[in-house]
Design brief:
The complex is a heterodimer of chains A (about 450) and B (about 210). Chain A is of the alpha+beta class and about 450 residues long. Chain A has 16 helices and 10 strands. The radius of gyration of chain A is 29 Å and the shape is elongated. The two termini of chain A are about 55 Å apart. In chain B, a hairpin with a 5-residue loop joins strand 5 (about 175-190) and strand 6. In chain B, helix 4 crosses helix 6 (about 100-115). Classes of the chains: A alpha+beta (about 450), B alpha/beta (about 210). Chains A and B meet through helix 1, helix 5, helix 6, helix 8 and helix 12 of A and helix 1, helix 3, strand 2 and strand 4 of B.
Chain lengths: ~450, ~210
Amino acid sequence: MAVYTGSFLRRLLPLLAAGGLLAGCAAAYARVNVSEKDYRAAAREHPAYLGGMVRDLLEEGRRNEVLNWNRMALRALRRGDREVAKRYFDGSIREINRVFSNSERAKRARSLWFREEIKDFKGDPYERAMVFFYRGLLYYMDGELDNARAAFRSGQIQDAFAEEAQNRSDFAVFDYLDARVTQRIDSPEDAVQAFARARSLRRRLSAPGAEENVLLVATLNRGPVKYTAPGRRQVLLYRRGSERLKSILILKDGLLLGAAVRAGDLNYQATTRGGREFASILNGKVQFKKTTDTLGTGALATGVILSRAAAMERDSNRRGALAVGSLAALAVGGTLKAISALTRTEADTRTWTALPGQIYLWSGKLPPGEHELEFRYYWRDVWKPAASSAGGAWEEAGRMLADLDKFGRSSQRVRRMLRSIGASEERDSRRRVTVRVEPGKKDHLVFVPSPNAHEG
Amino acid sequence: MEPLFCSMGRARGRAPLALASLLFVWGCVGGNVEVGRPVTRVDPSKETRTTGVGIESGNIEEVADKMVRSILNAPVIARAKNTPTVALLPVKNNTRFPINKKIFLAVIKARLNSQARGRVYFLAREEMAAIQAERKLKRRGKVDFDPRRRRRAVGGADFFLTGRLHGLSTAGRRGVSDTIYYTFKLIDAESSVEVWEDIITIKKEGLDDVIYR
């Protein structure tokens, strides 16, 4: 009976304490209950297409505010609702730019009892960079080129927080956009260095001519997703998003204008950020968890041994002393096991899932007026041969794309070229994009969202 | 032999429950409760709880204060025989912080108007459409006006007031540092000579909590 009681209590003590604290701590991450009346009142202030995101914003609270604003802003941007997009991106930027030094939530995230995701979401460097990227596009479209450049520079600096020195600030698209604005509003000479940097990172990004007045910014595929592996929840890992589409061709009136150039890859940015400083704190928590668990097991075992010894002791004084000792050991063991069970070591895997995988750019010149362009998407990279391809067809395609005026832009030639390199089109994704070129306007930026991105 | 813990009484058996309750209360009360703060008026020139390394209201106030004092002491203003007229040109932003460009000049203009006491006049170029429409109505006799106030044309600018913000930013594991150079100048609208310029430098550094690094 004593043996049964001892082992029963050995299991019960930590469970009771852990259950109590777990139930309480779960409230820290739980969604707040919002009445239907309050939800409808809030939903009336937002466009209908934001749907369930409004509920997420209300119920997930401050902890996920930036994440939900990002989701809402990107959905608005994809639908062409620039005012709503600006509002939410500006909200996110305000929070991202705040220096969270020793805030209450930061302290909790560092403490033993809370998972890292108790902290207010700001995002990984690549996620923060993309907030500035999109806001910069919106400034650009409004003609506020210097503010656009400021946003791109802020995006670039987010990337500088990556640990691995050789991969710092290697987000070429920001260098290119910074340089392009500088070329337009300051002087071409000032832009030379930034263009050179962009080209050193992405060799197909060349400086646009001064007469080029249209910039198409397109995104493609799906961005990275964060996760942790069982047994190593403190290590943050990134799963690359699917990358089915690899090329974009742009046509006008059936003639090929050109192929968009890859200027950024978020999967690359996410996976090359190197380690996090916070990882050392998580590793410390893991060590603490293991140590308290081991010590707790030892104390419980000691308690059981003492309990058995007490049960077999004939002398009442000694039996009493052994019983007290057993209780003490069991209490300590139970407490240590509870502490171990309650120590949270999981890394924060909250992800802005709506981000694209890649960013593509095309620059060109169009006369004043309205132009309808056609975007076609392909499964093969028209710029780069597959490993098993022979050189000839790819060299021909490359020459054609590099000098379309010489080789001709007709649909027939394009189709022949694409057939020769085995590029299959994603027909259902074809997009028509209207570009309005105004006389006297320095530059026209058109954003074309990914046809296969996660809705977010 | 009776079970050991039954002989110790029920009180001791409740110890684990008490411990669990204590931990429950201690660890997580208020975990997801957002503590609010009532609306209070704050001094725009002071830093707030929501401080970042960017351009904030306190910086704009500081810059405007210095520029106003400096402009009023500029010889072309202080020793002008006739009250000079000034038109505003947009501020140029060469930093990493998107700004509301109109704010700087709006604050400087308002301060000058209140402190200059007639030593400087600003031209309301942003209201030109309304001004031209009103002039047209007057000349057509549609509205009445004092003929002594009639002008052949809308006032021209003696000077342009403009500014430029330059930024130097670095970031890394040791934190982020931003130095912003706020420069403002008066340009003679006839000769293009820069008759006055001043600069103020504001540097900020910060290090985000380790949970964000």
